[in-house]
## 1
Amino acid sequence: MIHAKPKPIQEHGWQAELRAASLDASELLETLGLPADLAVPTDGFPLRVPAGFVARMRPGDPHDPLLRQVLPAAAEHAQVPGFCSDPCGDLDAIAAPGLLQKYRGRALLVTTGACAVHCRYCFRRGFPYADQADVDPERLANSLAALSDVDELILSGGDPLTLSDRRLAALITAAESVPRLCRLRLHTRVPVVLPARITETLCARLEASRLDVVVVIHANHPNELDDAVVAALAQLRAHGTTLLNQAVLLRGINDDVESLATLSTRLFAAGVLPYYLHMLDRAAGTAHFEVPASRARVLHRTLAARLPGYLVPRLVREVPGADSKQSLDGTLGQP
């Protein structure tokens, strides 16, 4: 009996690029013409960065703002009081497997533990994804059935856009089956670090949804926004998607008015409204990125004096157990 060979699963270009992402700090440093001794052990949170993002880094500059976001540093191993594995209270907010509900009217679905890039300041670097990110159809149905008083579902992770078109479409279809839901929000860094992922198939599925779709991207520095990213964002906009940006205020990376102002203006030119400027979530291993609140307020006031109000993101901090994100700029920031 002759058995037919199974057809290979077709891999899209963005998936090949994701699979080829750099996982080795020494190789990354060599690519940038930097000494290999800048590499340090990662202690369970490995380096991961796509080649397209590396291409935007300045060769020979160990202080490049994009490199510093992804290169493991010795400071990550420091034990600093107040920094912990669950800085945002995610574990206490679990309402059902993979489903977090912190605020009235919104719930967040942890769709995957995978990201296209590993940001060293990540607040979920210690999250138990093995227990919470398995969204098989039965488990997903049970989680969505647990929704109460919710009209907006947030797809997060990890990064939901690392999922295949098939899996992502299944998630969207499941969300559309919940009568009360009227908005779908995707929190993703993929359009910035892997713009090839923004395909016509993806955009068409988002546009076809009965839900109002909001894509919240994550860019911290204007150098992240190259022509490929701008084109990907334009494609999303052309299909009716609302685009917002949330950034994290990071010491030595974007804690200066020039970087923040340029980021806001470039985002707006690309059709993205600056939404949040987050204070660092105090995850273990990230203390070296923290900007003091007093300095953050000064930066934000200076930014507000320089730009029109619609280009000034809200300066906020997430406080576990609070009923909204807490504003540091004198206004109430809603999640």
Note: Residues 91-327 form a domain with the TIM Barrel fold (CATH 3.20.20.70).
## 2
Amino acid sequence: MFGPELFAFLDQLARNNRREWFQANRSRFEEDVRAPVLRFIEAFAPRLHRISDRFVADSRPSGGSMFRIHRDTRFSRDKSPYKTWVAVQFRHVQGRDVHAPGFYLHIQPRNTFAGAGLWHPDRTVLAQVREAIADTPDRWRHAVGGRTFRARFERTGDALKRVPRGFPADHPAADELRRKDFIALTRFDDDELFATTFLTSLAGRFRLAVPMMQFLTNAMALPW
């Protein structure tokens, strides 16, 4: 599905992150990066639906599962116009943006990883998830505590220094209630990305995150 020419383009873009260079090499981007990523999204859709048919694999070139290569530089000191990676999100069918619960794939030379969960949710959603964890801490611990899940995934994201207001400081899930993100990442070597088995490997990793994803969607009153 993916070939070394994808990484060759991204490595060269990292060294030539200018609009003039990108325009001169746009055909390479379309042929070596966008086209194989869109084919991948289309091919992955049946596997995703076997995990849950509530998550969307949209292979449209614009407005679909693949993120734009252009960076939003409005509030950044780094004014480089292009991302030097490729990002794909398979978000919940009722999700409107990147903050929806979803599965994620980040493709970058020497830094390819996949993820699952809920990133930077708004206050309402964050409160829903925290309430669900506070009410059923054992269920949440079970969802993120499986041996194989912990061996493959690293839980990460922003967190508060103290337990948020409204929850006791000595709550048994105090460390979980401090979280502002509920995400987990799993890494792939470059050779794994280029292997013919990558579709199957990625689906297998996502299945390990199903208990966590089910907990989050249930907390948000979304269908699984």
Note: The domain at 4-219 is CATH 3.30.930.20 (BirA Bifunctional Protein; domain 2).
## 3
Amino acid sequence: MSTPHPNNFCGCGYKNWLEVNLIKRCNAKCSWCIEKKGWHPEEVADWKTICDAAIKTGRKNIILLGGEPTLHPDIDKIVLYLREAGRNPWITTNGALLSEAWVTKNLLPIEGVNISIHHYNLDRNEEIVGIRLDERALRSAIAVIRGMGKKVRLNCNCIETYIDSEEELHRYVAWAKEIGASDVRFAELKFADDKFVDISAMVDHKYDTNDDPYHLGCSVNGVIDGMKVNFRLMCGMQTAKRPYPNDPIIRPHPVLYYDGNIYAGWQQKEKEGEQELEDLLQQVAAGEVSVDDALTAIFNEDKSDSIQFENMMDDLR
């Protein structure tokens, strides 16, 4: 079996952090968004139930994600409640709502803010995410947060034809410094191979980047033009552009969903499909559904044209 790097999420890194899927709704249209394929619970808990569940985990750093967490109607109450409970609330946002007034009203108790902006040219960022950011409002919001002594990290996914060269990294860092950010994270795309940019190859393996993130570390730090930079690399479990680890050990980290429940990692839509399959197999075992009907339901196709169907039918019989 393959053992992951201990600092990776799947290697039990970030033990004092809790990710929160705070809200399903989002105002962006990122084509690679993994949450589009994510599983979403039907139940929605009230904000205090979600906060109490987060606090109960004992984790110090609570990072609010989504969806787009700034769209939650009680975001101000959530941030304040977590802070008063002795937790460090963080938030990752696309920045669409950020302004001096909005931050002052909603985020004064925040520990830090991550803003996902995928190009230093905001026209090009709009091409990617479908949202127009107001740079003046963005700068004023960052100034307020930094004025409180808090961090503002810019998250940038490296995308082919956008940020896809070391020269573009330097341009992005220069812009990030100009608007007042404290640091930058450059990340490879997850489950989006058509636009994938290999960061390690792009920077010629500088800054401790590597070709085997599963074993050597998927999160590495460096400095570009005097600014702290983090690189988030994808292993073969997250992109076909790298070899899949041989018999990998995966240690899921807890994720709190907006229904108030803790799950083992981020859930995918397959969760629903797996439950439907389990229910169907139980109906077959109880004699309520025939094998032929069950397999037809699974494949939703003419069974006479499916070799896979025939093999499954033989196995079930």
Note: The longest helix spans residues 270-285.
## 4
Amino acid sequence: MTIWDTGRGAAGETELLEVRRWIRRITASPLKGTETGEVLEYVLGSSGKMIRPRLLLLCSSFGPRRAERLDRLCMLSAMVELTHMASLIHDDIVDDAGFRRGKPSLQSRFGKDAAVYAGDFLIARVNYWEGKEQLGETAALLAETVERMCLGEIGQARCRYREDVTEESYFENIRGKTAALFRTACRLGASEAGCPEDQAERLGELGEKIGLMFQLRDDLLDFALTKKERGKETGKDFLDGIYTLPVILAARQEAAGEALRRLMRQNREGSLTEEGLRQVKELVLSHGAEPVRQRIHQYSGACLQLLDTLEEGPAGARIRELIGKLDAV
């Protein structure tokens, strides 16, 4: 289920090639031949769709100084992607995940120690290059973003196995753990390309809403797809006590609430069976999926309204394309 095709217009393959070159430059190290070096080669060689760098470069198209600052924008895109990569490595360790995108996770393939060192190394290299390039306010923004990501993950951990987890807590957590980096990517692209402050803020808000859509879609697909389609275990968040919006909204429904809360209690007690998990998925898809689709559609409308306030070209069309695909879940 491809979210974004490649190769057309701004943030196409030519620019992304430059981003990848910056990634290699930033992560250059003497670790070749070590387990940590193997982790780095593995993760750098299997990068995903690079949605956050794409958004940074696309949002930079709204600024008048994009062309003269393109190399710097590609460097910043690399830093954003490396921050994302480091967070995925650490997430796999915390989640004790066996697979990522259908392949063995780093910690299962190379061991937890090497994975931890690799994640820390990536963040350290980003910090080093921020100082080397004297990025100042940009470095502070990225650091604040990492803090918000951590707070979102911590907030999510505090809600584990809670049958009374609220919609408000859920959104507070995903604004940090997922949407914060989307927001920063879009805002950085705009501000570094010379957009006025109000325009950069609007594009940052756009990025946050896209990030929320992205997480809502991911949480819904965790119940709607098979393991083969998804490339990893389905329902794992539920088994780990992480009750996402589809679960929260389904549990509110009179027709599903009592049965779903009973299964949530079984999950907390460690007695949930495979049949019980099947029932969870059925209840969530029957009673929680459509309300989540409606939320995604609401965010889609808000994103399009923000784009309507901007003078658009090919970059705006590409962003609309992404929004449309996120809304088509």
Note: The chain has a mean pLDDT of 91.
